[in-house]
Amino acid sequence: MSVNLSKGEKVSLAKRGGGALTLVRMGLGWDAVKKRGLFGGSKSQSIDLDASALLFDAGGNLVDAVWFRQLRSKDGAVQHTGDNQTGAGEGDDESVVVDLARLSPSTTQIVFTVNSFTGQDFSQIENAFCRLVDETTNEELARYELSGAGQHNAQIMAKVSRDGAGAWSMTAIGSTASGRTFQDLLPATTGHL
Q1: Which is the CATH superfamily of the domain at 3-13+21-190?
Q2: Which tens digits make up the pLDDT trace of 130-160?
Q3: pLDDT tens, 53-77?
Q4: Radius of gyration of the chain (CA)
Q5: Which of 79, 81, 129, 172 could potentially form a cystine with 95 if both were Cys, beta carbons 3.0 to 4.6 Å apart?
């Protein structure tokens, strides 16, 4: 059973039957708002949203980043499934898979961001969401609906934090930002560590 999160809410990532999650996927989905065409019709546009996973240590230092230009973390524990440049199709348009058991012990937080590489703002995006899935069972654990309106072109979506030996939690952040790449979002991101 999935938990629908509101901004600022936190959920434990312990398995319902006991034990810890080991393999999770953060999925990002979106649709471009249909634009009015000539003669009353509508036409679709392409919007290139990008999901990134930023790995931080206990001191708040960025130790690695996984994004469309670097699809795998240095320790091999985080894998981006590839860049979707249109938002077309159903379900997750981009995904980042995290093997929590293989993460470097120095990584204490993973912050997931989304930005419009092509620069469109969120007023041109609808049905945007991020969700966390137990990759071993394909069960959706948590979902956060991203607000579709606004002049911002990026969001700090959520973070997954180490809560002790083998325990993790997810916090929905949903903070608006501006930037075309994760580097542009670093100042806004560090405020949520």
Answers
A1: sav2460 like domains (2.60.60.30)
A2: 788 888 888 887 777 765 566 777 888 888 8
A3: 999 999 999 999 999 889 999 999 9
A4: 16
A5: 81
